Amino acid sequence: MPRAYNFKKREYPFSNKEMSWLSFNARVLQEAEDRNNPLGERIKFMGIYSSNLDEFFRVRVAMTRRICQLGAEGAKMLREDPAKAMADLQAEVLHQRARFNRILNDLYKEMAEVGIHLLDYSQLNEGQIEYVRNYFETEVRHKIFPIMVEKRYKLPELKDKTLYLGVEMRKMVRGEEKTKYSIVEIPTNALPRFITLPGNGSRKDIILIDEIVRGGLPSIFRDSHYHSFNAWNFKIVRDAELDIDDDDIYMSYMNKVNQGVQKRHMGEPIWFLYDSEMSQDLLDIFLKKMKFKKLETVTAGGRYHYFSDFIKFPKQVGLPCCENHIPIQHRHFPKGVKIFPAIKAKDTILYFPYHSFDTVIDLLREASIDPHVESIKVTLYRVAKFSSVVNALINARKNRKEVLVILELQARFDEENNIYWANALKENDVKVIFGVEGLKVHSKLLLINRREKGKIVRYGGIGTGNLNEDTSKHYTDCFLMTAHKEILEEVDSLFDFFENNYRHRRSKHLIISPYGLRSKICDLIDREIDFARKGEKAGIRIKLNNLSDEGIIQKLYEASQAGVKIRMIIRGRFSLVPGVEGFSENIQAISILDQYLEHARYFIFRNGGDHDCYITSADWLGRNIDRRVEVTCPVYRKSLKNELKSIFDIQWSDNRKARILDKDMKNEYVQTAEGEPEIRSQEEVYRYLIQRTARS
Description:
By secondary structure, the protein is α/β, with parallel strands linked by helices. It folds into three domains: 17-317, polyphosphate kinase like, CATH 3.30.1840; 339-506, Endonuclease, Chain A (2-Layer Sandwich), CATH 3.30.870.10; 512-694, Endonuclease Chain A (Endonuclease, Chain A, 2-Layer Sandwich). α1 runs parallel beside α4 (82-113), α15 (517-533) packs parallel to α16 and α18 runs antiparallel to α19.
C-alpha cells in the first residue's frame, strides 16, 4: 500500500481519500476470503467488490482524472503530482486484482467440493456440448451482431456496463493465413449470465453465457470461411459524472437529467479491463483506437469480467448464505395498534433492518385513508424498484390528501428509476419538486399534518437512510418517529423552503446543511475541548459512512491534543489518521463490515455527562456539509440516548468483524483478548433490541 499521507505537504496527517476508499474495498475482499462466512456469502462479496470497483472508476477515478487535467491548478487541489496520484491508484488496483484472482480460484475449488462446477467450453461433455449448441441456436444467435474491426477505421462507441468479446479469426486466402478481428457484445441484458447444464446426479454444472457465445462463434461467422477462433472478454468503464446543460432554459429539469443519464453511457473511457491472454495485436488496436492516455487506467484481468453478476449467483445454485434476521415489531408499534397515538405517546427510534420497515408503510397507509389527515410531505432520494412508499403517497392523493414529494433526480446511478417514479407521481396529481438548484437534497424527512380538535397536529420521521423498503432489509439505519411540536415545525419550514422561496429560516433544534452543520460540529467539539482543559471527562462517539472533511479533521485533532477521548466507527472513506503522536493519540477508529451494510449515522458528545445525541443524513464530507441539504436531528428522550450509546458500545466491542483503522491501512482485525468472548456486533445488536422489546 503506498504511503497514505505526507507530513511535508500538510501540517497535519491526512490520508488520501481515494486510497482510503480502496482500503475499504479491500475489507470487502477480506469478507470474501473469510472461511467463517458461508460460501454463498463469500461469492456475493466478490460481486460486491467488483461492483464497488466499477463505481470507484466511474466516479472517484474519473474525478481525479478531471482534476489532473487542470494542470498546475489540479496539482494544487490534489496536493501531489497528478501522474503520481493516478499511478498510486493503479498500483493498488493491480495489487487488489491479484488478490481477487487468488480468492476466486480458491472459491472455485470450494464450489467444486460441494458439487458446483463453473465450466468453460473445453470442459463440457458430449451431451452438454449438444445442449449448449442448441441453446445458442435457439436463444442466443439472433441476439448477436458482430462489429468488424479494421485498423484504418474508427471503432464504434463501446458502452459502459456492457460485456464484450474481442474475437480473433483466421482463414486461408490464396494459401496465406489472414487474421481478422471482431467485437461481439454478450447479450446479458436479454439473457441470464448463468445457465445450468444437464448434469450427473447431485453434481451441478454451470456455464456462463460468455462461454456459450464463444462456442457459437463458428455458427455466427459460418459463411466467412474462418477456420479458427480465439476470443477474450473485455469491458470499458466510462466517466459517470452527470453533466447537466444549464444553458437551455427551455428544457425541463427532468429532461435535462434524463439526457445527462443517456450521455453518461458515452462518457470518456476511464478504465479498460481485458483478459490477460488477449493477443497483443488486438490489445494495441483497442488502446490506440480508444485513445487511452496516461491518466486512464488499463488493467489485465482474468477470463471473465463483470463479477457484479455474481451477487445473484449463490441463490441460483442454492449455495448457503447468511439468513436475514426476522424483523422485530417495535414494542411501541405492536400489530393492530393505532399508529398516531403511539407516535404521540413517545419518541421512538426504529433501527433497520432489525426493526420492521412495515411500521413506516403502515404509517403511510393509515395516513392515506385517515379522514383527519390533510397533507403528507416527504423527501425521496433513492426509491425502491417497486415502491410501497410511492404507492402509498399516490393512494393518499387519490383519497384527496395534499401530497408533496421532494424527489432528488440526481441520486447517482438511480436517476432513471427516480425519473420513472417522478412520472408516476405526477400522473397521479402529486406535487413533485426536483430538489434545489445547486444543492442535492439528501435529507430523509416525512411530515404528516393531521387536524385534531380543530388544530393541526404534526407527526413525522427523520432518518439516516432512504425511505426505501429494499435497502431497509440490507442497510442499518436509524429512523426517529416523533410528534415533537417544535422539531416538526422546523421540518415544515424546511418543506416551505423547498416549495417556495429557498430562504432558510433559523432553527433551534434541527441542524441543516449547508447552513449550520459545520459550525455546530465545531461548537460541539469546542465544548468537549473546554471540558478536557478543565480536567473533566470529555469524549465523542462518532458513527459515519465516510469522514474526509479537512476542517472537521483538524478540529478533531485539536480535541485529541486537548485530551478528548474520541472513538469512531467509520465504514468507508476515512482521511483522519489515528494514533499519530502530537496529533491523534486520543483517537481510535474501527470499521465494521458484515452481513448488513453499516449505514446509520449518529454522533454522541459527552457534554459533562448529559450526553448530546444526534442522528444525521450527512457524512462528514465537504459535499454533505457545504453542498447538500442535509438534516441532523437531536435525540432528546433519555432512553433513546441510552439505546444509541448501547448500540455504539456493542459495535465498539466487536472482535469478529471490526477492523482497526490506522495510518498504514492494513485493515487488521480487532483481536480477541485472552478469555474474552467473541462478539459479532450485528448479532449482538439484534439480541439487544429483542431484549428491549421483551422488557416492554
